[in-house]
Design brief:
Four copies of one chain form a homotetramer. With 303 residues, chain A is mostly beta strands. Chain A has a single domain (4-225), classed as Acetamidase/Formamidase-like domains (Jelly Rolls), CATH 2.60.120. In chain A, 12% of the residues lie in helices and 37% in strands. In chain A, the strands form four sheets. The first copy, chain A, has a nine-stranded mixed sheet. In chain A, strands 3, 5, 11, 13, 14, 16 and 17 form a seven-stranded mixed sheet that branches. A four-stranded antiparallel sheet of chain A has the order 7-8-9-10, with no helix packed on it. In chain A, strand 9 and strand 10 (136-138) form a beta hairpin. In chain A, helix 2 (246-265) packs across helix 3. Chain A is globular, with a radius of gyration of 19 Å. The termini of chain A are far apart. Chains B and D meet through strand 12, helix 2 and helix 3 of B and strand 12, helix 2 and helix 3 of D. Chains A, B, C, D: It comes from Sporolactobacillus terrae. Chains A, B, C, D: Residues 43-64 are annotated as: Disordered. Chains A, B, C, D: InterPro entries: FmdA_AmdA.
Chain lengths: 303, 303, 303, 303
């Protein structure tokens, strides 16, 4: 069977929004292959390129909106991530002035000089992503940005929030299911910013950025609403909370995981709170975006 | 060979401090067994006990100070964690008003009623720590609180900071080496608050609290100073940053890991920053103490 | 001369956005009177009303967008605030579950019961706003929400950010000039959420909310761009920074004030930094909105 | 009547602590004159001095501990501030690497170069504190650091917390009463770090630092305990909350002010919360110390 291939027909989107026209309609149950640009708009490919001159801000172009037939506010969209392929043989990262967790930014401004700009081009080959002999890392692809449209807002593609978005969380990877709230008719799904791999926190603000082909299948859970994005893997339930300061992201992630345990698995909320105190897991997705993203997890065997 | 056994001779300590007299002197290279009380002062053992009435505040009694012969300011104390045994057959956790990551506290006060108080007593047997049929978790012992004395301060045993302290980080476990800065002659080592297991963040403020016997060996690294606690496992280097808000703990942990990579492994700092962006790991130790503790990690194979 | 009166022709706006059609066009130099609804949509007027049942979320309806003829991205819009009249004789405040600085919210969730709901209706008369004999406060009207449209985002009317918005800062009052960045052609000006008075921080999330008639005059400063909203009074220059955590709002406000002193008054940035260390003023606008707003100030006599 | 003059007999203190011997005993009701060194240990006096080389860290030497006869844990110490004189004719401020609200610090580390070091020496004359023609500011003296000893901790003199400490709040000035909790017998009072003036936030980390003679009178309020420092002026009640992130300092300050209104003035807590929403005031004391200090205020006429 041939997959439906989705390529952005015109300009890429830089917001998650219901105010744009859908680029394609997809049926629940349908498997599609979505082509995405990298976070540099595919415009940075050489060590001598200067993102601060080439790009306007930090662009993060998105493919979408994709209209999901039958999706209504109050439903949940389940995105089964099936496969990620790079559509080129290199990945790019960079130190860019004003971006990152260890440098002054517009959100945390300082009277200090920014970090020197530097572009890192990695070769993708043989299951490795390689900058030089020492800096060579396994191919661990995932989606940095995956979202539905907010109810009335049009949010920057740099922002992670209740609708998903730029969560930069390595758990949004093939084999896992990402659950997103449906806020508008048709859901208006967006994705982009695929990574060949990333450390926890995405410290410099750029992972191993790639242009990619993402294969996934959409399912609708009718009449089931969620407050924050969720992920399910073979072994774990996860919630992603995005906020500043980071402790609020942690609170959101654990609180929503308690809600999930209570609603779907019959837990008393206080017992769920106690259980997570003893066997919950929490990792840092990003510590660089407009909101920080933390991931709370529970092994299904403890449910 | 018989181990030197260290039992607190009188009152336990509730601060990390050079202002107390050492309870014992230990030689570098010597292996000792240290007996510790649990965070409830071993005074909570039944579901009907009320910590808010039994205890004054959140006590966290420490065994120490232990004088390390030959330790001088500017050295590093390497604590090789060898073994942890529970000295009783149960662990205790609790929901206590004013403590936890999802409840108003004295640090984040609110005009809201606290969570209902509840004590959870877990049976330790057959490698499991069991509250009931559903809430039964593996035995994963580690030390919640491990510290040297600060240079001039006497800090509460509830506080994690540059000297170690109440980090509540599951990586301070047998098989790993904990590196702590020596700030005063003799280092003045303290430990306590041993856990039979804990989830990331220690959400309710109490892990599976046990009285314990901790076996460890002290080594001195003369003339080597560190700014924050470090941990080394068979496969990883780790730094624990403790601060509020949580993003500052993340910044500290990654920044000090960059310093470690630069000083001991010859990395250019910007390349280390890039490498951690792609393969660094970061988990949440605690999100409940006076400072939050985050752990930055790098797999040694990437050094 | 008769003022142009601006009444929202249809539905009020709940976002700041360029994606809506302007309701009216205004010329630079023109003085207009804008009618606004209160933050409760004028639907809460009795102590027995329950905002949590009457309202969907926290609505904050805005009048606009108002198209400013000739405004182009890169310009600054100067809004001369001339007068505020209440269009009714009462003001309303409320304690509403999930809103406020001392209660769990969706941004800082907790496993705790919310504060009891309560509506406070104040009588406006004789220059006072009066709930009862003890709680009677002077008439100190100002605009809670005043904004241009963001460049590509549609942001909730609850949000204060670089474009202005829901800053809830008592300095946006008659006699002062509010400077806002122009991000889109025509600026797309919005305002609403007028207050009969407010304490610093807007602790409970609602000030003395009124329906109002706001008289103001728009001027354009062509080719002059600013990063954050500014206010000028007879004696002071002010910048409003909005962010979480609150220290980032403080950094933004002082950093942008340093920029202002450097660009328009010839200060060396480090000397400006030193001067503000000695005579800068900083107050809390709001500690309840999606971002906190802090106001940095310098007395003009020190320029 | 001749005042009792208190000069530190030996080394100044760099912690607030009960572990030191009192330097003098004072009776309740007694008026004393306390001599203090400046935050640079009086060792920086010329523009060419380099604090980073002259000083070890950020010292903040304190005069004390002063034993208050009859003070017992659970009492409150009322310090009536009567007068401040500079004991020299100049004040000093500085930009020092690693200190300040707009520069990377050990608490908020970054891979960025620090701000250039610079010393500002101000002449004190004719009621003005003058660096040059433009940077000349009124004499507005207050105490930067004022504290009792914590119960069991010895906290750095750089730290503001429940016991007072390095709050850097311009309201601790002559004419006002500072209330501090008594945590240990004799209270162990400390003071130092007097300023000839300061902007809100103490942006660069140094105010107009002076050596000084502080005249004050101590009173005891027996059997009255407070949780956080309070200030009373002729017209206002104030509470200082110190925490990170800054919103927690704001929560503490307003929450404790609500407690004060309830306990001493008979307010219902929810009504107090409502009143502060409409007429509370909040300013930023410091945004640079180990904890940030915010001041919540209410005009007495609204009580």
């Amino acid at each position: 069977m041939k997959l439906k291939e989705i390529r952005q027909p015109g300009a890429y989107s830089y917001v998650f929004s219901k105010y744009a026209d859908p680029v394609v309609t997809v049926q629940p149950g349908e498997t599609v292959a979505i082509y995405t640009k990298d976070a540099f708009e595919d415009r940075v490919s050489k060590p001598t390129d200067r993102p601060s001159q080439i790009l306007e801000g930090d662009p993060n172009p998105q493919t979408g909106p994709i209209y999901i037939e039958g999706a209504e506010p109050g439903d949940t969209l389940a995105v089964h991530l099936l496969n990620i392929e790079a559509t080129r043989d290199y990945a790019v990262s960079a130190h860019k002035p004003g971006l990152g967790g260890l440098t002054p930014t517009s959100a945390t401004p300082m009277l200090a000089e920014p970090m020197p700009e530097k572009v890192y081009v990695y070769k993708i080959a043989d299951g490795m992503v390689t900058y030089n002999e020492k800096m060579s890392y396994p191919w661990r692809p995932f989606i940095g940005t995956i979202a539905t449209a907010p109810r009335i807002e049009a949010l920057s593609a740099l922002t992670p929030f209740t609708h998903g978005g730029n969560m930069d969380t390595p758990e949004t990877k093939p084999g896992n299911i990402v659950y997103l709230p449906v806020n508008v008719p048709g859901a208006y799904f967006y994705t982009g910013d695929v990574h060949a791999g990333q450390g926890d926190g995405e410290l410099c603000g750029f992972a191993l950025e790639i242009a990619a082909k993402v294969t996934c299948r959409f399912e609708l859970i009718k009449g089931k609403s969620i407050n924050w994005p969720r992920i399910e893997s073979a072994n774990e339930l996860m919630v992603i909370g995005s906020a500043r300061p980071m402790e609020d992201a942690a609170r959101i992630a654990y609180m929503e995981l308690i809600e999930w345990m209570a609603e779907d698995f019959g837990w008393d909320k206080y017992d769920a709170h106690q259980a997570l105190s003893q066997i919950g897991r929490m990792s840092v997705g990003n510590m660089v975006d407009t909101y920080y993203s933390l991931v709370a997890k529970i092994d299904k065997k403890y449910l």
